[in-house]
Amino acid sequence: ENFKPAQVLNSLKWPDNHLTTNRKLHFSITKDDDDVHFEIDSLTGDLFLSKELDYETTSHFLLQVIIKDYNNNPPQNNTVFLSIDVEDQNDHSPYFQDDFVVIGIEENVPVGTLVYTFNAKDGDGSFLNSKIQYSLEMRNGGENPFLIHPSYGTLTTAFPLDREITHSVILTVSAADQAINLTDRRLDSLAAKIVILDINDNSPSFTSSPLSYVMEDVEVGFFVHRIIAKDPDEGRNGEVTYHILSGNENKSFVLDKTTGLLTTAQLLDREIQERYSLTVMALDDGSPALSTTQVLTIVVLDVNDETPIFLKQLYETAVRENEDPGEFVIKVEAVDRDAGLNSLLRYEILPGTGYEKFRMNSDSGELVTTASLDREIQEVFSIKGSPSKSSTAQLYLTVLDENDHSPLFAKTQYQISVREDLGEGSAILDLFASDEDDGLNGEVTYSLIDDTFGAFAVDSVTGSIITTKALDRETKSQYTFRAVASDSSAHLPRSSTVRVVVHIDDVNDNDPVFLQNPIRAFVPAQTAVNETVATVRAEDVDLGPNGAVVFSLMVAETVFQIDTKTGDVILQEPLASKDFGTQLLVRASDQGISPRTATAMVIIFTEEQEEEILFSNSLYEASVPENSAAGGHL
After folding, report:
1. 118 half-sphere exposure, CB direction, 13 A CA radius
2. pLDDT at residue 397, as a whole number
3. Residues sharing a CB contact under 8 Å with residue 438, sequence separation 6 or more, in sequence order
4. Quick one: the chain helix, strand, coil %, rounded to 5?
5. Where is the Cadherin domain (predicted)?
6. What whole-number percentage of the chain has pLDDT above 70?
7. Which of 91, 261, 114, 107 is nearest to 179 (CA)?
8. Mean pLDDT, range 437-445, rounded to an integer
9. Could you tell me which of 224, 236, 409, 215 has the C-alpha nearest to residue 305?
10. What angle do CA 539, 528, 613 make, to 5 degrees?
11. If you placed Cys at 217, which of 231, 303, 353, 553 could pair as Cys (CB 3.0 to 4.6 Å)?
12. What is the CA radius of gyration of the chain?
């Protein structure tokens, strides 16, 4: 098919036994044939190619050639049929319909699963020139988890897939024809991105500690522990929620299912229960969901909140007179429900008549005489003893260093303002201090001194100060503490301090609170119009517009209106009757961007409807022990 036009393709010859000198012949191709690919020399019979051939369009031609012999009279016509076969040349490359395809396959399919079938075309006509063989190459290196069938183009899995190890693979798929001459072979390629689709095949795994400690005197809502579990799956398959399965039957703790924050829901008492074992479940959001459990042990640490108690309120004994000093009298004993040092008791004798004649062993509680007793002088002694509570002390150990340069902070003081709704673990400030010394003497670490009220901590290496709990401006609007930069010298390290001031900016997170609700107002029937008949008061602990309260009536009234700023309820029309009564719903709103509101009821009566309110008794009496805890019922 690549034969060039204008060249002699063949030549028609008259049979030798017919040849004569100067034989006059005329050659022509029949006019009925519409093919214009061939021409013949009318005199010589040479066959020419007049137009390029294409095997894929026409692979065979049948020409009818007329030979007219003018040596006969009349001239004689002879017909010759010429069959021409076109040989195929490899002049077409294989081709794919697309240059790039994206294919998704789930990670849990078995080895040998059909992923995709590539189908390349080749315009050549003969078998080998159009026979396609496929090959595969992975662009980003590593082990190729796929195979392609060289003849059929089917892509299958060769190894198990794991999306958590490999998210996607980019393959180069090539299609080459099989021309006999290797140098004549043609090929085409495309890029295929295989995306490994996630299957919920991983259970959450706990990374947080299974042990936590909490003091027994913490308030309700105190942060105890943060439960953390990781799930390497994707999307909802990797979203973890937390749940308490058992161990919290008395509802002592609350677990936030989203954040994993465990807080106290009740006051704790180590003397009642000193250890909790909570079975906690981490559950992903896949379908079906997978879960993991962990037994979280919470140890309640002792606080010295128990008073020692004597085993007996009254001890009675007898001792002979005239015995030498040092005579054993009795042993008293008290118990303290606290633990450790808080439960260690020391005994003493309280001052009283004749107490100087006795001595109490402060550790054992044994009472002995310090003088000889005389019954005739004093027969009965009444002695009071008491165990004393222990006290604590702190020891500060200062390590001297021999460095000649102290770390130097970049600023003499740090001040920063943060919103009170800033999340726990947020970085608010980066400290930086430099030390001119070399080596360990110049390596700076950071720490905080003074009380940050558990709100802040510092990364000892980077100097980044982060929040360690939720902030509340209404509880504390400013924190002032010192940061310390210390070098790492093994001998006499040096340090310097800087003052850090953190201002807490207000967020509108508190509702207005009415000082009284409901409000009862007794209004004479003859009250003049525009008189103030009642006043509502409300407070909002937020700042600025967030704490500025305005008042309004929830239901429009013609008889009364309320002053939006003062809360005064003003009579607008004369009262209709002497037995008039109504109830007004008052809304108090702050002026924050997203206002918060509260409602109260104002009950208005005329004098005729006034009800007398009387106490059940004219005098109430109660006895209260001097050590009673605040909030106790009288």
Report:
1. 34
2. 21
3. none
4. 5, 40, 55
5. 1-96, 105-206, 214-310, 311-409, 410-514, 515-627
6. 91
7. 91
8. 88
9. 215
10. 60
11. 303
12. 51
Which tokens in the block code for residue 225?
């522990």
Task: Please name every residue paired with 156 in a beta bridge, in sequence order, or none if there are none.
Answer: 114, 147
What are the boundaries of each domain within the chain?
Answer: 7-85, 94-197, 205-301, 309-400, 408-505, 513-605
Superfamily of domain 205-301: Cadherins (2.60.40.60)
Which residues, at least 6 apart from 92, have a Cβ–Cβ distance to it below 8 Å?
56, 122, 123, 124, 129, 130, 186
Q: How far apart are the first and last CA of the chain?
A: 115
Which tokens in the block code for residue 81?
Answer: 């049929």
d(CA 266, CA 249): 12
The whole-number average pLDDT for the span 497-508 is 91
List the one residue out of 525, 524, 522, 526 whose CA is nearest residue 534: 522
CATH fold for domain 94-197: Immunoglobulin-like (2.60.40)
List all residues 6 or more positions away from 117 whose beta carbon is below 8 Å from its beta carbon. Answer: 152, 153, 154, 155
Sheet holding 132-138, edge to edge: 100-106, 187-197, 168-177, 132-138
Which CATH fold would you assign to the domain 7-85? Immunoglobulin-like (2.60.40)
pLDDT tens-digit readout, 148-169: 999 999 999 989 988 888 888 8
Phi, psi torsion values for 187, nearest 5 degrees: -145, 165
Mean pLDDT, the chain, whole residue set:
84
Q: 408-505 — its CATH code?
A: 2.60.40.60
DSSP string, 456-520: EEE-TTT-EEEE-S---TTT-SEEEEEEEEEE--SSS--EEEEEEEEEEE--S----EESSSSEE
Q: What length does the chain have?
A: 634
Write the CATH number of the domain with boundaries 513-605: 2.60.40.60
Nearest 5°: phi and psi at 602?
Answer: -110, 120
Q: Per the structure block, which two tokens stand in for 52?
A: 């390029």
What's the average model confidence in pLDDT over 468-478?
Answer: 89
Nearest to 572 by CA among 538, 618, 630, 528: 528
Interval 515-541: pLDDT, tens = 999 999 888 888 888 899 899 999 988
309-400 and 408-505: same fold?
Answer: yes
* Cβ–Cβ < 8 Å for 235, 197: no
Give the pLDDT band of residue 219 (cuts 50, 70, 90).
very high
pLDDT, average across residues 323-338: 84
The pLDDT value given to residue 399? 25
pTM to 2 decimal places: 0.41
pLDDT of 23 over the 50 cut: yes
Amino acid at 336: D
Highest mean pLDDT (candidates 56-70, 218-232, 329-343) = 218-232
Tokens of 502: 């953190």
pLDDT band for position 18 (cuts 50, 70, 90): low
> For residue 395, what pLDDT band results from cuts at 50, 70 and 90?
very low
Nearest Cα residue to 345 out of 315, 313, 385, 300: 385
φ and ψ at residue 183, rounded to 5 degrees: -70, -20
